[in-house]
Known about the structure:
Chain A is an all-beta fold. Chain A has strands spanning about 5, 10-15, 20-25, 30-35, 45-50, 55, 65, 75-80, 85-95, 100, 105-110. Chain B has no helices and twelve strands.
Amino acid sequence: EADIYQTPRYLVIGTGKKITLECSQTMGHDKMYWYQQDPGMELHLIHYSYGVNSTEKGDLSSESTVSRIRTEHFPLTLESARPSHTSQYLCASSLLEKLFFGSGTQLSVL
Amino acid sequence: GDSVTQMEGPVTLSEEAFLTINCTYTATGYPSLFWYVQYPGEGLQLLLKATKADDKGSNKGFEATYRKETTSFHLEKGSVQVSDSAVYFCALGESGGYNKLIFGAGTRLAVHP
């Protein structure tokens, strides 16, 4: 089984707050990803990383930012949360062509 | 660009019924194809994959065959169970070794006793 962890599981926060969604994996994978899952279930890649100090924007434009200072850690930050950021955020890492997903963070911005 | 189209849900079946979830793709190059499953309250899990034309991926009674001529990767199971109720995602792996996946919109399956 995959060892990839996301916290918090649920987050309800007010508009304008800064938030960081945590993602950690213990498998030593170089490649990591953030997907945004909308209520219709579609998954959109918003950020990815091929290793330490490597980050790229995905196919869906996002106001969030990411960092990759350590192999095991890939946090996502929103400087000023807005209601339009309400969504499910899924973190993943990969080995060869297999992706391992965390359980996700459901973010609600009021 | 590359894309994946899968049949809309929800799909509602009785236990032991036959399941087909259609998936077609558009891609340049020779992508790998995947089915991922998301059970309620959980993250996605790889269900099966195929890496080249005519490959058949199989797992837990599910099967899908990579059909290059029809650009399809339909998911099938001969006899579904209540525990198969979940959302199923077809995905395409972009060529180039970067492991970026493009997902379809997902198909919700509900199996009733």
